[in-house]
Amino acid sequence: MAHPELSFLDALIVQVDHGLRTLSRIYEAEGRPSPAADAQDTLVEPVERVRAGRMMRVNHAGEVMAQALYYGQASATRDPELREHLEKAAREEADHLVWCQARLDELHATPSRLNPLWYTAGWTMGALAALRGQGPNMGLVVEVEKQVEAHLDEHLQDLPADDMKSRAILEQMQADEIAHGEQAQIRGATPLPLPVRLAMGALSKLMTRGSLWV
Ligand SMILES: [Fe+2]
Ligand SMILES: [Fe+2]
Prior knowledge:
mainly alpha; 7 helices; binds fe (ii) ion; 214 residues; Ferritin
């Protein structure tokens, strides 16, 4: 575990603390205002509010996983500057969590009960990539953000047309994910092997389908 100033046990406690806070909805975010703040809640049809709530639960679960991924990477990264960058990215993902959580509350929807599973999977994936060095570590970010960006594109098309609040959140998230991917390219991302990319795609499908209902 990488914080050189911390013992292994201290670093482990820090990581468990991050995870428990996220799963308890105590988000360690950058604190940017929600892009939905100025949008009107024009979604009135009850069936459509339920449908939008389910979609935002999927997006919230994706952000749980993204945040875990960055903390997993940060925990196993030896370069202090890169670790700081990854922790900042984790806090930006936590902004996304805050925005999605607020929208879930407005839609009377709940987060996925499978979030502990997604957090564990994301953290493990991040730590393993970081242990393989900066190229694969940044390659993981590029691949994840590419998959998230494509997923957000689908959701932006499928959301109820008059759900302007969810739409505003997803549009800002998509812009942030593109920036995260570009930053990782600049930092020397190397492409991940095809089987890894396929496994990540399968995990992402499992997460998006599972979180839709549970
Ligand atoms: Fe995100
Ligand atoms: Fe991101």
